[in-house]
Amino acid sequence: MTTVLFVLLPGVHLLDLAGPAQAFFTAGDVGHPYDLRYVSALPDAATVTSAQGLPLAVGPDWPALTPDDLVVVPGWRVGEDPRAWPHVGDATRERLRAHHAAGGTVASVCAGSDALGQAGLLDGRRCTTHHAVQDELAARHPRAHVVRDVLFTTDDRVVTSAGIASGIDLSLHLLAVRHGPAVAARVAREMVVYARRNGTEPQASVMLRHRSHLDDTVHRVQDHIDTHFTRTLPLPDLAARAGVAERTLTRLFTRAAGVTPLRYQQSLRVERAEHLIGHGATVEAAAHAVGFRDARMLRRLRTMALPTRPGPPGS
């Protein structure tokens, strides 16, 4: 079971913590359990009081972690005086660095990015935070590349989000990367949230780009495509699964997701192929792995600007 370790500082915002915790907890309900742990960023603290006044019990020590585990630093109430931002202790900074150096992923929500900056993990990397403190983060960590007006960024296993509810988007993205888009979509639906991404973020996953709608018929078809995108999926079969005519499915799907079912499947194939190629596979091997007969179609689709704009919900 993969561990998700939340590192808490005084004044932690409840939703910065609860959003990601709920997403990974819900992943267990759909067959992918996580072991959620909570520790204080300050030494010898048995409780951490949230910004909303709720005392939170924390473990005394960091558990042993593997590269598959995730460390998350939720944000805290920053207040009007930047000098009052908490100082992360030497031991916590070293543990954050060591986990990343060992191949693990570290993430932050809102002002939690400052903790990663104090550990030196933002140097030379893209990052973001809540819009109200982006200037302060850039001033504190001048070697970081602060990206504005995005929900989250990923850069070499350092993942930062804009704050508050965007921690849910961050978590859905990580679940999609680890378990596939179908699992992330199921978690989003269980939580009754949009599976969404900022359209200006170039690393947006296909699933999250095209799930910003509430059409349950289209969601059911997308669930099937997400799970079986490497197979041939004829439109008549998809329409029969949805219980509608082919033309109706195409119209509903395009209106809700912004693309046709075929283009959605092609986008999933290309995204997965890009991942395989990035991990050393040849174009030919990646093409066969995602369901293409040969590499010609994959090469053509990689050079095309596939539509990325989701249709407006309810349009």
Features:
315 residues; alpha/beta; Rossmann fold; Arc Repressor Mutant, subunit A; 6-stranded mixed sheet; two-stranded antiparallel ribbon; 13 helices; disordered C terminus
Task: Note the topology.
Elements: E1 2-8, H1 14-29, E2 34-40, E3 47-49, E4 55-57, E5 70-73, H2 90-101, E6 105-109, H3 112-118, E7 126-127, H4 134-140, E8 145-146, E9 152-155, E10 158-161, H5 166-179, H6 181-191, H7 206-209, H8 216-228, H9 235-242, H10 246-257, H11 261-278, H12 283-289, H13 295-303
Parallel strand pairs: 1-2, 1-5, 5-6, 6-10, 7-8
Antiparallel strand pairs: 3-4, 9-10
Helix pairs in contact: 1-5, 1-6, 5-6, 6-8, 8-9, 8-11, 11-12, 12-13
Describe the 3D structure.
By secondary structure, the protein is α/β, with parallel strands linked by helices. The protein has two domains: 178 residues, Rossmann fold (3-Layer(aba) Sandwich); 94 residues, Arc Repressor Mutant, subunit A. The chain is 44% helix and 13% strand. The chain contains 13 helices and ten strands. Helix 1 runs parallel beside helix 5, helix 8 crosses helix 9 and helix 8 packs parallel to helix 11. The protein is elongated, with a radius of gyration of 21 Å. Keywords: DNA-binding, Signal, Transcription, Transcription regulation. This is Transcriptional regulator GlxA family, contains an amidase domain and an AraC-type DNA-binding HTH domain.
